Amino acid sequence: MLVPSSHGDVKVVKSGVEFSGRVPYWTHFYLYKDLIVDTGCSHTAVEVREFLGERKGVVLLTHHHEDHIGGAIALQGRLKIFAPLKSLPLLEHPPELPDYRKLVWGQPQPLKAHPLPSSLCFGGLEVEVFETPGHTFDHVSFLVDGKLFAGDLVVAPGQMVCMRQEELRDTMISLRKILKLDFEYAYTGVGVFSKEEVKAYLEYLGGLRKKVEELHRKGKSPRDIVKEVFPHPPEIVQLMEVVSDGEWSRENMVRSLLGLPR
Taking CA atoms, which of 57, 70, 160, 251 is between 20 and 30 Å from 237? Predict the structure, then answer.
């Protein structure tokens, strides 16, 4: 299912798969002039191709996750696709996903993409590319015309879970980097955020890190810290932990902020 809308001169496209009358998890991709930033998941690839029609331009991918690159397979051969250099092996040989991710997003098909340079010009647009690791090791963000396209770098304050491989301390470094840039809005996988909201997310992570480090210095285990900092998780958080078999969890969040193995 695709739900298009507009935010100024940026076309926002919500993408998700409906189960029993509801979409359990949305992602977003964006159209700006001749740019298509991310493409949704493989389950909606045919819809993406039909939605874009004969649109010209280039596809820019922020990282290798299936909810951002899956739709690109329907555009391969018609549009030029760019991705971070570190993403290319995972696009060409996508790893087998856990069953719950296959159900929600679909297993990506092998994809050929061109490596992103540090900047590129297309259709009169100058696109600056910034490495912004944290959510994934290969994550990048794009700055064009004062707009920041930031993939999954930004999540709203109040985040309680993260994926096992996320490095939130790297995310904080990346957030500090992009906050030095001149932009008004960040266009991300979970929606559109103002620069002030991006700052608030960084402040949330910083405050949470300070709290978990203090508890850890007092001898608390990561599991005990979870009980103190996230004592009453909403049902959706508990469900994510169970369904993902811990790939998403509050303990991952604590361990990541402490720099501990997961």
Answer: 70
